[in-house]
Amino acid sequence: MAPLAGATGVTLLVDIGNTRVKWAILHDGALSCGTPVPHREQSLQATWPAMWGHMPPPGGVIVANVAGSAVAASLAAWASAHWALQPQFITAMPAACGVTNGYSEPGQLGVDRWLALIGARHLKAVAGQHVCVIGCGTALTVDILSAAGQHLGGWIAPGIEMMRQQLSRGTAALSGEFTRQSGGKGLGHSTEEAVMTGIRQAAAGMVDRAVLTARTLLEQPPVGVVTGGAADDLVPFLSSETVTVPDLVLRGLAAFVLQRD
User: Among all residues, which ones are annotated catalytic?
Assistant: First the structure.
């Protein structure tokens, strides 16, 4: 973890998803990630001190939040009470950090997708290339980013775990618990294998179709940049070239802060 002495030079970056809180310290331009914490398995009042109760006040708290206003209010109240700080909650913009938002109403683009685009734009591994940003969380998202930084739009579908849960809940004959370890790439030889392989193949099919669509628009295939908790479930099923970046949203937050400063 980056040193916290002289905390005014330290920025706490927070990525609040639907099920987990990811966070990092930005210090002297370097990003150091903490351990993600599930925020639905314990009260919010316990989540914040579990992660940061030992830390002196940072110079600022910058947040990407897609978990709703109650979560944002809880974090703001805790930061105010413990650090006398008000977090800054980022929203998508028409343009920032070399990325132009492709939505007709830019503010409607999820902030996690927006910052993932910025993170990908500043990723050395794909510099100068068209990119397909793939978010593997509660939702499965794809966003196409041209080499010039133009966001061309994207798709949203249920994520792998959500598909599994909905299939289990909505189909009496498939009401069993299916583990993430089940299934391979081929045809399933049990209901559990058929479900888990089918779900992963469905998710991979959407991503591969997005890559083909981008190739038509851009006249060359994009490189996939994959992020999110289910990345390891998806990547082996993809046909396209990919790079996995678990902290992509936090990298986007860091780029935003560094450009602003």
Answer: 112
